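Subject: design request, 304 residues
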């Protein structure tokens, strides 16, 4: 929010504006007074504003959730159908035709779906966040609020889809009579890493997409490519040992492996060096995304 300096404090009604270093002169009870509106919010004030505008965050998230499947025939069932059909295709191609091994004793379909859930969350979060600022151009150009609220709200919408799809995973586990062990308690940890990756990459691409609109064509291609290079339809154990650490530079590798380890239990082996490397890369992307977003945030209203 902009700070306001005025030589008349009493009876001065000031409305925060999204402008920098502007001088406004108005007639006030027959006298001219000067309002200097300039950017003066510190980082501490900015992060405090995120909490003050939490209701706006809730409104934007609920609006996106309510309109996502509006006027569709089957509504929220699309959140179930898409990962389920992808699981079927990957199970047939990799499990039946290519005859690739599963993780431990887990059925191949269950292994695929356990990897599909975190990837679908990441893909939906990045895809929706990348266009969030452009889609809210009118709001951004007229009203002040921390712009971080907009893309993070879309990540929460993707999380709702994740929770809906998680119901299929539970039903599959009941169908195959596959019960998880104590590792399921660590599932929130790897889900937290997925949030870090999604928010970091989403903020970085969102800020670039505002200035370079070519990214709206690149993002779907990159997400589709990432689906095949990430261990979604296969187990990362098939990667040669000398390349597994390099492979873990893709932060979703650690997320997917960890998610499967939590769901499928101790039968699946966890490559801990890759997990720590993926956590480091996820932290880097989160730092990079926030830094790039804050760097370009002041110019969003002009670019949009």
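Subject: RE: design request

Done. Sequence follows.
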């Amino acid at each position: 929010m902009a700070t306001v300096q005025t030589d008349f404090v009493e009876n001065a009604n000031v409305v925060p504006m999204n402008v920098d270093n502007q001088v406004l002169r108005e007639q006030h009870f027959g006298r001219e007074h000067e309002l200097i509106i300039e950017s003066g919010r510190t980082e501490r004030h900015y992060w405090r504003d995120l909490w003050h505008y939490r209701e706006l965050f809730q409104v934007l998230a609920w609006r996106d959730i309510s309109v996502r499947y509006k006027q569709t025939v089957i509504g929220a069932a699309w959140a179930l159908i898409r990962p389920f059909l992808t699981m079927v295709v990957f199970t047939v191609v990799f499990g039946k035709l290519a005859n690739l091994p599963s993780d431990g004793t887990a059925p191949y379909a269950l292994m695929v779906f356990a990897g599909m859930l975190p990837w679908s969350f990441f893909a939906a979060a990045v895809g929706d966040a990348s266009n969030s600022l452009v889609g809210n151009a009118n709001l951004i150009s007229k009203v002040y609020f921390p712009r971080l609220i907009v893309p993070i709200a879309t990540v929460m919408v993707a999380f709702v889809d994740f929770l809906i799809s998680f119901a299929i995973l539970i039903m599959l586990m009941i169908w195959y009579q596959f019960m998880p062990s104590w590792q399921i308690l660590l599932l929130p940890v790897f889900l937290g890493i997925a949030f870090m990756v999604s928010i970091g990459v989403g903020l970085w691409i969102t800020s670039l997409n505002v200035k370079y609109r070519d990214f709206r064509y690149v993002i779907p291609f990159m997400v589709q490519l990432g689906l095949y290079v990430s261990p979604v339809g296969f187990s990362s154990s098939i990667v040669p040992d000398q390349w597994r650490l390099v492979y873990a530079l893709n932060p979703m590798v650690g997320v997917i492996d960890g998610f499967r380890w939590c769901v499928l239990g101790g039968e699946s082996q966890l490559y801990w060096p890759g997990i720590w490397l993926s956590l480091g890369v996820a932290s880097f992307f989160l730092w990079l995304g926030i830094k790039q977003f804050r760097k370009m945030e002041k110019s969003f209203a002009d670019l949009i």
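The longest strand covers residues 31-38.
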